[in-house]
Amino acid sequence: MNTTMDTPRHDWTREEALALFELPFNDLLFRAQQTHRQHFDPNAVQVSTLLSIKTGACPEDCAYCSQSARYETEVERERLLPLEEVARSARAAKAEGATRFCMGAAWRNPTDTQLERVIEMIRVVKDIGMEACVTLGMLTRTQAERLRDAGLDYYNHNIDTSPEFYPEVITTRGFEDRLDTLAHVRECGIHVCSGGIVGMGESRDDRASFLVSLANLPRHPESVPINLLVRIPGTPLSDTPALEPFEFIRTVAVARLMMPRSHVRLSAGRTDMNPQMQAWCFFAGANSIFQGERLLTAANPQADADRALFDTLGIHPLIPDGYSEATPEDSLLPRKVHFSLTPSAG
Q1: How far apart are CA 72 and CA 131, in angstroms?
Q2: Is 65 a known active-site residue?
Q3: I want to staple 292 with a disulfide (CB 3.0 to 4.6 A). Which of 49, 266, 334, 337 is the partner?
Q4: Given 31, 207, 265, 307, which residue is catalytic?
């Protein structure tokens, strides 16, 4: 099996993905690091910040989610944030070293009126000089076109897990519904951010099938967030046994091999990872993180903790070509060299 090819594949089988998972750990990480170095600076990590712009009261029944109206959690319902608060958060994120500002709203799908308010936020983020990303639920083709015309850079819509395990986690929308939204976004020329969650009780077969579903899309997502389940009290998955750390690292490495030009992002669950586990993930091919104290409603490492880890590992934040940086004295993360991305790397 050629796992260090220059041309991405879109014809993976589950058996091939499982064969990668089952490699000796050192062999798997060696191959993943080789592939990573073919396409990326191995010591550069893209930094994003995620803000919940509308929290709680979601009608969906995603079994992992604290924002579902169906579960009793500690999350309070909040209306869409004022534009001024979003702008203030974006400026603060840029000063702390983030180059992309992501905004999430707990909707099944936005109404056209809601979308117009989000479009105002996108324009503000772009005016501040950051890449803009949103996650708003399902979209129609027309809504995706409106987001593109507003200058949106990335749309996040995770497939969450394998098609086989999906009904065990979510019943209020189908797996195909998620693929339809990804197709609308891609057809409109917006970069795709799509990944999922591991540690929800799925099998290794499911993790392989999940990655096959992403890698066999007509074009790989530019960003692939790999979330470790945050076991939130009040949700159906709150008592799920913790995933073995090496299995998570294997998932990152297989994602790198199957989608060699995508940014693989360590997303939710980093507060449950010690620095050594995160370092293994970076070696396995992860090259993106969310920075900031919260990811929507879940806790996230503080910026100074990420700075300390970056310093220890000799990692620097990735600065996109042409990006207008915050001044060094305002940044909490070190600013170092720029790295030109390959065309298909998001």
Answers
A1: 35
A2: yes
A3: 49
A4: 265
281: annotated active-site residue? no
- Roughly how many angstroms between the first and final C-alpha of the chain, as a whole number? 26
State pLDDT tens for residues 137-190: 889 999 999 999 999 999 999 999 999 999 999 998 889 999 999 999 999 999
58 is catalytic: yes
Q: Name the active-site residue from 91, 100, 102, 178.
A: 102
- Per the annotation, the verdict on 265 as an active-site residue is yes
Backbone angles phi, psi at 279, to 5 degrees: -60, -40
Q: Which of 193, 207, 270, 281 is catalytic?
A: 193
Contacts of 338 (CB under 8 A, 6+ apart): 319, 321
User: How does pLDDT run across 213-228, given as a tens digit for each residue?
Assistant: 999 999 999 999 999 9
Q: What does the alpha-carbon distance between residue 305 and residue 272 come to, in Å, rounded to a whole number?
A: 13
Determine whether 102 is an active site residue.
Answer: yes
List the catalytic residue out of 100, 133, 186, 261. 133
